[in-house]
Amino acid sequence: MRYGYLFVISGPSAVGKTSIINEILKLDNSLKQVITCTTRPMRKTERQGIDYYFMSKKEFLTRERNGDFIEFSEVYGNYYGVMLSLIMDKVNNCENALLSVNWEGFAKVKKTIGQNVYGFFINPPSIQDLELRIRSRGTDSREIINHRLSMAMEDMSHSNIFDFCVENRDITTAANHILEQINIIKQTNEYH
Fold first, then answer.
1. Which of 81, 89, 91, 151 could be cross-linked to 72 through a Cys-Cys bond (beta carbons 3.0 to 4.6 Å apart)?
2. Which residues is 100 bridged to in the sheet?
3. Do residues 129 and 152 touch, judged by C-beta distance below 8 A?
4. What's the longest Cα–Cα distance across the chain?
5. Which of 36, 71, 23 is nearest to 176 (CA)?
6. 108-161: per-residue pLDDT in tens?
7. Neighbours of 25 (CB within 10 A)
8. Sheet with 53-54: strands ordered across
9. What are the CA-CA distances from residue 119 to residues 90, 104, 140 (Å)?
């Protein structure tokens, strides 16, 4: 039986993961996104079931107790999680999917699913560039910005567990680089 591939995109906060995924999906509509769950408030530009499955903390914690999440974490006071069923629906239907999680989530997903899981870690050109991106959002206090930068350093220290590291100087260039690697993986494994 053939299965689809799961391509995991990870990296520190504000590195451009969502923008890169959106660009990849524009360039290759055969790839599907695994939508993750969160308890954080929906932003004005976001839509339920498109960007995230937004849910209350009560619903999230109930699902967590029921074992629905392959991976979950609390980030800046909000919960984020990936339901195993959403991944397996895509993989079992031979769909190739993109998933955005942190490095710990990637490690758990890779361990649980095993085959056909590849990780891409997105690095900023520099810490100064990342700090500028975080500040330009205009949504965080100085304390939160400093915490995000500290967490970014921690995230980047685990980039070695990923199959590929990609620097994000430009969204389109980074997306094209990832897509090239995805196509190589699909073509190489198609003949073995």
1. 81
2. 9
3. no
4. 52
5. 23
6. 999 988 889 999 999 999 888 877 877 776 666 788 778 778 888 889 999 999
7. 15
8. 53-54, 37-38, 78-83, 69-75
9. 17, 12, 29
- CB neighbour list of residue 17: distance below 8 Å, 6 or more residues apart: 9, 10, 11, 100, 122
d(CA 141, CA 95): 41
Q: Hey, how many other C-beta atoms are within 10 angstroms of the C-beta on 146?
A: 13
Contact 4/97 with Cβ under 8 angstroms?
A: yes
**What pLDDT is recorded for position 152?**
84
| 163: Cα separation from own chain's centroid | 14
CATH superfamily, with its number, for domain 6-190 = P-loop containing nucleotide triphosphate hydrolases (3.40.50.300)
Q: In what order do the strands lie in the sheet with 6-10?
A: 31-33, 96-100, 6-10, 117-123, 164-167
What's the whole-model pTM score? 0.85
Give domain limits for the chain: 6-190
